[in-house]
Hints:
By secondary structure, the protein is an alpha+beta fold. It has one domain. Helix content is about 25%, strand content about 20%. The chain has helices spanning about 30-40, 80, 105-115, 115-125, and strands at about 20-25, 45-50, 55-60, 65, 70, 100. It has a 4-stranded antiparallel beta sheet with strand order 1-3-2-6. A hairpin with a 5-residue loop joins strand 2 and strand 3. The longest helix has 11 residues, at about 30-40. The mean pLDDT is about 90. The structure holds iron/sulfur cluster (2 copies).
Amino acid sequence: MKIKLSQDPxxxxxxxxxxxxxxxxxxxxxxxxxxxxWYLIHRGVHVYVCPENVWHIQFAAPCLHLKNGRxxxxxxxxxxxxxxxxxxxxRHAAEPDEKHSFKKEADLKRYLKKHRPRVYRKMYxxx
Length: 127
Ligand code: SF4
Ligand code: SF4
């Protein structure tokens, strides 16, 4: 569902130009989840699962062309930027765009304890 936006919905924002995100394989084994753990112990790395159950890794990495919340090469910006839909962005989406969000290892531990208890016990046998 599209929501009604103001004339300049991106005013003073620029958030979507401050990171890179890409799809990763859905983790299945303890070894796969240990890789996720490794990602999360790096500063600026975030893992999330979108509502369609696709897993992504996100790196905090502001674009070099972002200045004061504005794109300085707007008319020559890459296709991936042109294809980004403000109606679907995390700031304006009607629905949350993350089913699960892992910003640090503790988030992963909580997820495993609840959803993958066997993997949790294998990865954290002393807890
Ligand atoms: S598309 Fe969304 S996240 Fe990006 S600048 Fe506009 S309001 Fe901000
Ligand atoms: S090129 Fe422009 S629109 Fe694309 S990420 Fe950089 S600042 Fe944002």
